[in-house]
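FAQ

Q: What does a record look like?
A: Structure on top, sequence underneath. For example:
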């Protein structure tokens, strides 16, 4: 594209950053970031979103946090990206701190926010912060139907902490969303077997 003299716009840049994320190609992603700075595309919030996602998925959470910190105007998407980024990179406390900070800034968590926070809690074994019944109450209170990722994460936590009664309730929701997901049935079956 560049060789043919066509100037890439921000949409092209975010697609290339998405490809770098999927491939784990941090070096190429950094090259794209230099291009972004050179062309002044760093003011476009969607470019920043994709940069944070790329850095997080490539295991470079420090760069993701630098980009997040440099943003003057933050959206719910931006908060979710940094929360999930910290959680998947093993920085559970930072994920939970940002989850709290997001709410203090007036943003209401959505399904992605809760998935990030629950992931952080389950990775760190923070039972007090990620109490299962409280998490289930929160999931039921959000206006949209929770997705299979959120419910699946909570189901795994139920297995970890031996909460069979909550696992049964969760399966009611999971069956509505994805009745053909065999792994959830196997997980619940193993919980029944362990409970005998």
């Amino acid at each position: 594209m560049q060789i043919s003299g066509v100037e890439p716009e921000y949409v092209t840049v975010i697609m290339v950053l998405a490809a770098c994320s999927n491939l784990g190609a941090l070096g190429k992603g950094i090259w794209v970031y230099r291009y972004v700075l050179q062309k002044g595309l760093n003011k476009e919030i969607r470019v920043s979103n994709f940069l944070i996602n790329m850095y997080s998925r490539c295991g470079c959470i420090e760069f993701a946090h630098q980009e997040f910190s440099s943003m003057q105007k933050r959206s719910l998407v931006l908060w979710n990206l940094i929360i999930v980024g910290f959680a998947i990179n093993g920085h559970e406390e930072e994920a939970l701190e940002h989850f709290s900070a997001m709410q203090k800034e007036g943003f209401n968590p959505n399904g992605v926010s809760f998935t990030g926070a629950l992931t952080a809690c389950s990775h760190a074994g923070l039972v007090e912060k990620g109490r299962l019944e409280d998490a289930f109450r929160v999931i039921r209170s959000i206006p949209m139907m929770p997705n299979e990722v959120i419910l699946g994460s909570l189901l795994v936590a139920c297995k970890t902490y031996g909460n069979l009664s909550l696992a049964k309730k969760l399966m009611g929701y999971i069956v509505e969303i994805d009745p053909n997901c065999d792994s959830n049935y196997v997980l619940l079956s193993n919980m029944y077997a362990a409970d005998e």
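Q: Is there anything notable about this one?
A: The CA atoms of residues 52 and 67 lie 7 Å apart.
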